[in-house]
Amino acid sequence: MKQIALYGKGGIGKSTTSANLSAALSDQGLDILQIGCDPKRDSTRMLMNGRLIPTVMDLVRERGDRNISIEDVVFRGYGGVRCVEAGGPEPGVGCAGRGIIATFQILEKLGALQADVVLYDVLGDVVCGGFAMPMREGYAQEVYLVTSGELMSLYAANNICKAIARLSTRARSRCRLAGVICNAKNMPREKELVEEFAERINSRMIQFIPRDRIVQVSELNKKTVIEFASDSAQAEAYRNLARKVMENTRLDIPTPLEIEDLESLAYEYIK
Amino acid sequence: MKQIALYGKGGIGKSTTSANLSAALSDQGLDILQIGCDPKRDSTRMLMNGRLIPTVMDLVRERGDRNISIEDVVFRGYGGVRCVEAGGPEPGVGCAGRGIIATFQILEKLGALQADVVLYDVLGDVVCGGFAMPMREGYAQEVYLVTSGELMSLYAANNICKAIARLSTRARSRCRLAGVICNAKNMPREKELVEEFAERINSRMIQFIPRDRIVQVSELNKKTVIEFASDSAQAEAYRNLARKVMENTRLDIPTPLEIEDLESLAYEYIK
Ligand SMILES: Nc1ncnc2c1ncn2[C@@H]1O[C@H](COP(=O)(O)OP(=O)(O)O)[C@@H](O)[C@H]1O
Ligand SMILES: Nc1ncnc2c1ncn2[C@@H]1O[C@H](COP(=O)(O)OP(=O)(O)O)[C@@H](O)[C@H]1O
Ligand code: SF4
Ligand SMILES: [Mg+2]
Ligand SMILES: [Mg+2]
Fold first, then answer.
1. Tens of pLDDT along A192-250?
2. A11 at B interface, C-beta within 8 A
3. CA angle, corner B106, sides to B104 and B110, nearest 5?
4. What is the pLDDT of residue A98?
5. Pocket test for ligand 3, best of B37, B90, B131, B160 (most atoms within 8 A of CB)
6. CA distance, residue A247 to nearest chain B CA (Å)
7. Which ligand does the CA of B185 lie closest to?
8. Packing angle between helix B129-136 and helix B151-167, nearest 10 degrees?
9. Residue A98, CA atoms < 13 Å, CB-side half-sphere
10. What DSSP character marks residue A252?
């Protein structure tokens, strides 16, 4: 069972990339479980024809974790991909991380945490104990960073590396950096910048995904690009990503950059 | 002592707005304390000539909270504005919220949590118990949402409203929604969209701040717009915001929107 996580700054394209990656892997014949671990709870929406499935945390708050069956929380979407949304903490009150772990434990108890590939889509803006839970507790073993060339998304990716590096010393966590996915904003020299960033954190850029309007068009049709525009170049980029993820054996302990070095790197590519 | 907080999605412009607001208030003769509560710890950078001041949390981890003096954590910047950065949790391990509260308690113990206006600049991507701490524990009493017309920043602002509404029922928190600041991305009809959003959450847009390259130019010069380009229209927008914040008496309990209603609202303004 391959257990991969996509981490990155909010809005960078984790869910779009996750849903398309899951769809592509499913088309390749694999049994996929995608678990949204972002309070936005919309990770699986494009696999579910635009539907926002109920979240595990909402159900736990409504009924208690003993009154949840597998059909309440696991939904079959495009290509048979199984979809789960952890949901978020009670606004202003709870801990997102505890909700995420509770979700995993419920899925395990229901025998639902099984698949050829489990894909965790996780918010990466704050690398507190809460959002690091999938890595800390050994669920997410191969972490892919999703970033553009924008300094703010590189900053978030770099922070996630600090967490991975720290957690790599713990027995239970077993998580490693598997690669960097550039989800482009179509900036000049963006690919080179993200490639260099990836090298310097002791990893590599595994796929460059262009910014393409076909993503918006597919979204308006409530589908992934894989489903809505399977002949497009964008769909091919997601299929390439899927192949590379399945073939990838390179797992690293990252070497995060100092803030000043990250800034100088980003500025080199602006002039 | 006026205690205000700026909350909003990461990257939306909280720190830029906070630093310029503090600078403008200071120019009006007030004693200002700005506390950065974002793990990015760069809230006060433009008031400190580009310097990233040490964070309280880093110092606590290095020396313990008993060995911290006021000069270690409170720095005087532009116009005498006093600057503090709470810092972030240990990546992958700690709780951002506990760090924020520890910072406030240390400042209180040092007699440093005093000013005409205390301005908290707080990450609003995740409205977990951690980042809601300034509101929960009664430090932040007037909350200003910083948003653009982009759905993702409105979504974050709406979530913060859920937290404010929930916490308004608790005795200790005393926090209210004081207004919405539109930090523009120069989208068509953006002002109208944010005005309508503000009305529908039972508040109002208190200031429209254009997107202006003078912000980048000032930043490259390591200064706020108030300092670097005090005759610009952008500086005047920040001064207007400062005046309105000091005159504002309207404090509301917000009425957050349902996701579907927020999306329909945003889509109305796209066509
Ligand atoms: N490669 C891309 N090209 C064009 N638009 C994209 C691309 N990737 C993501 N987007 C858009 O960016 C927005 C945010 O993406 P999303 O996957 O929801 O981010 P996240 O899950 O990281 O918060 C979505 O509306 C999506 O349409
Ligand atoms: N009104 C504006 N016009 C142009 N650029 C802006 C404006 N406000 C913010 N920015 C830019 O947006 C970036 C993010 O702003 P920042 O204040 O750091 O966001 P936050 O504190 O919410 O994470 C900064 O680099 C800043 O230069
Ligand atoms: S650990 Fe993280 S998610 Fe949990 S309350 Fe603290 S800041 Fe929020
Ligand atoms: Mg997402
Ligand atoms: Mg900031």
1. 999 999 999 999 999 999 999 999 999 999 999 999 999 999 999 999 999 999 999 99
2. yes
3. 115
4. 87
5. B131
6. 28
7. 2
8. 60
9. 12
10. B
Contact state of A125 with B128 under an 8 Å Cβ cutoff: no
Look at residue A241 in the predicted model and tell me its pLDDT.
98
CB contact under 8 Å between A39 and B167, yes or no, is no
Q: How far apart are CA A225 and CA B82, in angstroms?
A: 50
Residues 6+ apart with CB under 8 A from B216: none
pLDDT of B55-99, one tens digit each?
Answer: 999 999 999 989 999 999 999 999 999 999 999 888 888 898 889
Q: For the beta carbon of residue B205, count every other beta carbon within 10 angstroms.
A: 20
Mean pLDDT of the region B255-266: 96
Look at residue A143 in the predicted model and tell me its pLDDT: 98
State the average pLDDT for chain A. 95
For the stretch A122-133, pLDDT in tens is: 998 888 889 999
DSSP chain B: -EEEEEEE-TTSSHHHHHHHHHHHHHHTT--EEEEEESTT--TTGGGTTT--PPPHHHHHHHH-GGG--HHHH-EE-GGG-EEEE---PPTTTS-HHHHHHHHHHHHHHTT----SEEEEEEE-S--SHHHHHHHHTTS--EEEEEE-SSHHHHHHHHHHHHHHHHHTTSTTT--EEEEEEEE----TTHHHHHHHHHHHTT--EEEEE---HHHHHHHHTTS-HHHH-TTSHHHHHHHHHHHHHHH----B---PPPHHHHHHHHHHTT-
- Reported as type and span, the H/E element at residue A2 is strand A2-8
Per-residue pLDDT band for B208 (boundaries 50, 70, 90) equals very high
Specify the 3-state DSSP secondary structure of A73: helix
The response to whether residue A15 sits with its C-beta less than 6 Å from ligand 1 reads yes
HSE toward the beta carbon, residue A233, CA cutoff 13 A: 6
Separation between Cα atoms, residue A138 and residue A121, nearest integer Å: 15
According to DSSP, residue A3 is labeled: E
Q: Which of A89, A127, A156 sits opposite B128 (nearest CB)?
A: A89
Q: Identify the active-site residue in A2, A40, A185, A191.
A: A40
User: Which DSSP string corresponds to A168-211?
Assistant: TTSTTT--EEEEEEEE----TTHHHHHHHHHHHTT--EEEEE--
Encode pLDDT of A77-99 as tens digits: 999 999 999 998 888 888 988 89
How far does the CA of residue A30 sit from the closest CA of chain B (Å)? Answer: 31
**Whether A130 contacts A142, CB under 8 Å:** no
Give yes or no for A266 touching B (CB within 8 A).
no
Task: Identify the nearest ligand to the CA of A94 by its number.
Answer: 3
What would the two tokens of residue A210 be? 């262009």
Mean pLDDT (whole number) for A54-76: 96
Task: Give the distance (Å) from ligand 4 centre to CA of residue A42.
Answer: 6
Amino acid at B223: K
* A34/A24 Cα distance (integer angstroms): 13
